[in-house]
Structure prediction request, 806 residues.
Amino acid sequence: GGFQSMGLSNPVFKAIIHKGFKVPTPVQRKCIPLILQGDDVVGMARTGSGKTAAFLIPMLERLKTHSAKTGARGLVLSPSRELALQTQKVCKELMKYTDLRSGCIVGGDSLDEQFEMIASNPDILIATPGRLLHLAVEMNLDLRTIEYVVFDEADRLFEMGFAVQLHEILSRLPPSRQTLLFSATLPKMLVDFAKAGLQEPTLIRLDVDTKISRDLEMAFFSVKDNEKEGALLYLLKNVIKLPKHTQNEDQTDVKKYKKKKADKKEKSGTEADHQTILFAATKHHVEYLATLLETAGYQVSYVYGSLDQTARNIQINRFRNGVTNIMVVTDVAARGIDIPILENVINYDFSGSSKVFVHRVGRAARAGRRGWAYSLVSTDELPYLIDLQLFLTRPLVLGGEKDEYDYTSELVLGAMPKDSLIDDKAWADDKISKDAALEGIYRTAMNAYKLYNRTKPRAAAESYGRAKEVIKKKAYNNLHPLLLNEENQSAAEIERANMINAISGFRPAETIFEFGVRGTRKLTPATMMMRGRRQVVDKIITNHKAKKEAESAVLDKPLDIRDEKEVVEKLGGDVEEEELAQAFNIPESKEDKKKKTSFRDEEFYISYTQKDANTERGYSMNNEGSFMEQASKAQLDLTGDDNDAIKKSQNMLRWDSKKRKFIKGTGIGSDNKKLIRTESGALISASYKSGRFDEWAKKKHITLPRAGERELIGAGNMGQKRFRHNKSEEAKRVDPLAFDYEKKMKKRKLNESGGVVEQGGMGKKRVGEFGSTKSELKNASQIRKDRVALEKRREKSNRPSSSGGR
Prediction:
């Protein structure tokens, strides 16, 4: 059924209809009834499935109306500022017909404004963990009034290092609370957290079959590293056909976007079809690509993690309002940015994690709309594509292997036309060489890419071998089916492309020792040695070639998931179905009851691979790619067997090259910040308690009531933006026939001159009501003269007496 059958109150249901929600999504249909019963719920669903409304609607239904008692009753924790602001926006729309109050607490905003917002006694707090814990310590905030807490994008909360803050916040909440945990993935760390923080939770799992929307079509293009700029320009120009001008590009003032709701119009179909988001590796790549695309004439917005909050909001609003039609972002900055209508996603740098790829492309094809995801894959990035293929359990198909392709269920890989790539790449190189600023940004981006490659997690070892097999296939250099047309499908063009590929892959039959030596006159010892070696290994080489030709028949078939069970990997963050069953109450489905029988005894059979090994490896938080992580797992620490050895290990010193002194500890993972211990025993940064709130309360003459007491009088008006009248109009014309015409004109002149009126003849100037007054402020020359005179007087007074007296 719809929202009508859920038993919602009239204000909440009215707001849902006003928002435009007609039919609940699968995650809303399953979660909302359970949450309304008061159960703790763990919801798993892919990005864009309606998780935000799934926990906001029951929250508003439970809180119903504003409470005069001090203390928030609902809490939503988000991993990023953008996601928190997006949740706040949806929350305000859904509580439109209630008197509930909500507040947003994110980093980067003024602390004084947030003090005032909390003093206004909001019912719902939507916050990031770091700033919320900061305010809780600074204000000595009591969170025992919280009845309803939500961990939104919980996997991302732990990935970003908020584990300490989350456990500390959890310890401050009352045990009688209702806890909800929503996440796209469920690694082992989250299961342990759910066991500690949730009471008999129910698991709603909707991501097993559909990790990516069925309406999303994907295309993968094999390019070289130095051809990516040309490939991007070709993609925008010939495939997406992105226009270089938008309907609203002349609107550069952000204030022009703030119009009345009656004046708001939806984007036209042609404009919405070209909204494109471009993912790059680092912030330096974002700046470089944004500058390059602006040089090409496109309307571009850009966002990265360290961008100023005001600039970030301006860039996002320009993209949302159609001023720009392409946004260049990094993975860190894009998490939480909600773009309602997005048709195209481009992966300029292929993701090193399958889970990150799913989050990237999940921004398109939402709410029943079609969408495209285009990925540029270099030779070094091909193993990550193999990892993705195993994670999604979809076949990898090369161009030219089939007549018809299904871009929603297959990963189709193909090349781009060489001529067009060369032309676009030459244009980009020409612009870089002529523009000094662009050349500097390009060099910085290339240096950043080297560091990015060194720190990127490695793909599975098996994927590197599979990638080599794919590259050796003849179809690897075929054009992508999406790019086929009459020009590049002609026989002459195909033969020309094959010749270029043969030249690029040419390997000489002779070694350097045999080159140029045909007869017996120019024989050298090295040549004689190579000829003797060829007689010995010639048979081995022939057998190896025959073996490769026999294998090519198998390799020419589409790469499927047939070898998935042979991949044996040691994973750190996997969760088995048995462990999920112990941690959560999982509702049984009809499919589970109709299990197929097998010759294996499920009670005693032990498989040599984990169930869903590749899927869980993609979901895993702990990538075992970095040396430090591998070394820390291989490290063996032995406790001393006597008191002296134990003391020695505790007092071990290490030389810190930055501080240039010996410090205690290993230095691995520590940031050398001063820490304080909270009531729960957790260590947090000492900068959280700075005394700013006490100064603010003293300045405002406010004493906040304790949790549960009656709120301050006029608390609802606190934290609101005050309207200031800044409008100025020209004065009306004075009627010359009026009785007091001269008096009015004299008064107007007085106002226009700032209180100074010049009288005719030899009259003096009059300032205000009390006449002219001498200014007591001295200028620089007067101060200089006074100092010289003072020095002269000091010298004269210190001069010895001429009479020689005592």
User: Anything to note?
Assistant: The chain has a mean pLDDT of 78.
